[in-house]
Amino acid sequence: MARRTPQKSSKSKADQQPNLFDDLGNRADRFAQKLKGFMRYGWDLLGVFLLAGAGIILLGLLGITTGALVTPLTAFLTRWFGLGRYLVVIVMVIIAMNVIRWRKQQPDRIRLGRILGIEFAAFLLLAILTIVNGGSVAEAEQGLDPGGIIGWGIAEMFRAAVGPTVGFVMIAILFAVALIASLRILPALERLVEKHLSNQAQLQRA
After folding, report:
1. Taking each helix axis from N to C terminus, what angle separates 85-104 and 20-61, rounded to the nearest 10 degrees?
2. 2-33, pLDDT tens digit by residue?
3. Which of 28, 71, 77, 147 sits most deeply, having the most CB atoms within 10 A of its CB?
4. 195 touches 204 (CB < 8 A)
5. How far is Cα 67 from Cα 195, in angstroms, rounded to an integer?
6. What digits encode the pLDDT tens for the residues 82-94?
7. What predicted TM-score, i.e. pTM, was given to this entire model?
8. CA 162 to CA 133: how far, in whole Å?
9. 70-81 vs 148-162: helix axis angle to the nearest 10?
10. Alpha-carbon distance 23 to 52, whole Å?
11. pLDDT tens digits for 168-184?
């Protein structure tokens, strides 16, 4: 009489098959490890890329280099930002330096209010340059306005609302307030005054 061979149950076969969720979890872990390794040097690569871009744009603005990408980009910056095109390069350098330092020393918090204040002051500065130059929309379109199209647009809004003289005064006041608030000049002045007064008090006691 032939012996029956034991058949494996369907349950044991199911146990031998890989679990779909376990496989996805392993892939996610591997992807996270690769991403972590990339991010270890990704910030440095991004910082170097920004520095290189800032250098190329600066050379293009100075007329030292030209190219199929550099020439249209410098023309765009000149037309829209005027002299503020150099501020764009400075901002790129500052961002690049902070990005490179990010991996080694991450900041406790990002001062968003300070960043917005500096940007607001920069746009108002473009409007002041336009008003001082007395430029027109034609000059702005040709890239001859020191404030660019952006500066001319801001100046024109104030001129249309309150007139040229009052508009200039308002822009100057807002620029000063934004600059003082973003750079925290008042607290620094307060500390200097307090230090001077304390030194004077110590000299009088002596």
Report:
1. 140
2. 555 555 544 454 455 555 555 666 777 777 67
3. 147
4. no
5. 54
6. 999 999 999 999 8
7. 0.70
8. 19
9. 20
10. 42
11. 999 999 999 988 888 87
Structure tokens at 50: 């920004």
How far is 82 from 133, CA to CA, in rounded Å? 12
Pair 69, 16: CB distance under 8 Å: no
Residues 105, 101: Cα–Cα separation, whole Å: 6
Which position has the token pair 């409007």? Answer: 127
> Rounded to the nearest 5°, which phi and psi values hold at 107?
-70, 155
Among candidates 37, 143, 55, 49, which has minimal Cα distance to 96?
Answer: 49
| Cα gap 81→31, rounded to integer Å | 42
Neighbours of 124 (CB within 10 A): 25
Residue with tokens 């020393």: 105
Long-range pairs of 155-160 with CB within 8 A, sequence gap ≥ 24: 155/127, 155/128, 155/130, 155/131, 158/127
Residue range 139-147: mean pLDDT, rounded: 88
Instruction: Provide the token pair at 95.
Output: 């961002």
Q: Give the tokens for residue 152.
A: 């001319």
Give me the torsion for CA of 118, 143, 90, 184, rounded to 10°. Answer: -20
